[in-house]
Amino acid sequence: MQQSLFGSLATAETATPGSVSQSMDSVLLEDAVFTVLDLETTGLSAKKNAITEVTAIQFRNGEQVGIYSTLVKPAEEIPEEVELLTGITNEMVRHSPALVMVLSELSGFLGEAPIIVGHNVAFDVGFLREKITQNGLDTFLERYDLSRSFCTKVLAQKALPSLPSYEGVMVATAIGYHNPNPHRAEADVRMSAGILFELINRLKAENPKLKTLQDLLNYQGILNER
Predict the structure, then answer these.
(1) Whole domain around residue 54: which residue ranges?
(2) How confident is the model at residue 3 (pLDDT cuts 50, 70, 90)?
(3) Which of 72, 148, 156, 75 is nearest to 110 (CA)?
(4) Are the beta carbons of 199 and 119 closer than 8 angstroms?
């Protein structure tokens, strides 16, 4: 574990596989490195609102192999209702690293062709792509590729068709996972990872032919931008 180069609130531990391109049709699910990611933001508009927290954790076969996590100094004040929802206050982020530094560090952590996972991952990926463009870091855009991404909400909708809701906490509860701190990035990442690997185990038990990243992508389908 080491501190971020730019912020004492950040932690980063990078696994070697995170920087290696993974071919979707040749990597077995138990060998794949999934980077589960979550953002906290000041609002829902990627163009107008700001990021306040980022966590990305790399997992292989359900085991953590790397983590990047930091608060972010936003370009706008955090609204009171968002402070109440997330517990992240303006005082907490006042001395956090600037977004451009976080985006550079995060992109380095992800590697060249990561397999990104999240609950409503299209929102997180879209938000990051917008901020990367706004900050002139376009060389990193190809790392945030929805065609190589997995959404635990979409997977749950397919694998657990009878649930009354597919919000993250509801899906987690249905599979027996407790999220102790919803709306904080690391807790939500660990929740999404719990959902991902439980669903993979169930799907593999039902269909032994589901073996590779491409098999899982075929089951999910290509995600659409929000």
Answers:
(1) 2-220
(2) very low
(3) 148
(4) no
pLDDT, residue 6, reads 33
Q: What strand order describes the sheet that includes 63-71?
A: 2-3, 11-13, 63-71, 51-60, 33-41, 115-118, 150-151
Domain contains 113: yes
Instruction: Tally the domains of the chain.
Output: 1
pTM for this prediction = 0.91
Using CA of residue 99, residue 141, residue 129, residue 86, what is the dihedral sign?
Answer: negative
Q: CA-CA distance, 106 to 129, in Å (whole number)?
A: 12
Both tokens of 125, joined, read 């990926």
Whether 32 is in a domain gets the answer: yes
Tokens 């987690």 sit on residue: 172
* H helical segments located in the chain: 80-86, 90-93, 99-110, 121-134, 152-159, 168-175, 185-206, 213-220
Cα radius of gyration (the chain): 17
Q: Which of 13-17, 49-53, 87-91, 182-186 has the lowest mean pLDDT?
A: 13-17
Task: Tell me, yes or no, whether 225 lies in a domain.
Answer: no
CATH number at residue 211: 3.30.420.10
Token code pair at residue 174? 């249905």
pLDDT single digits (tens) 14-60: 443 443 456 899 999 999 999 999 999 999 999 999 999 999 999 99
Residue 145 lies in a domain: yes
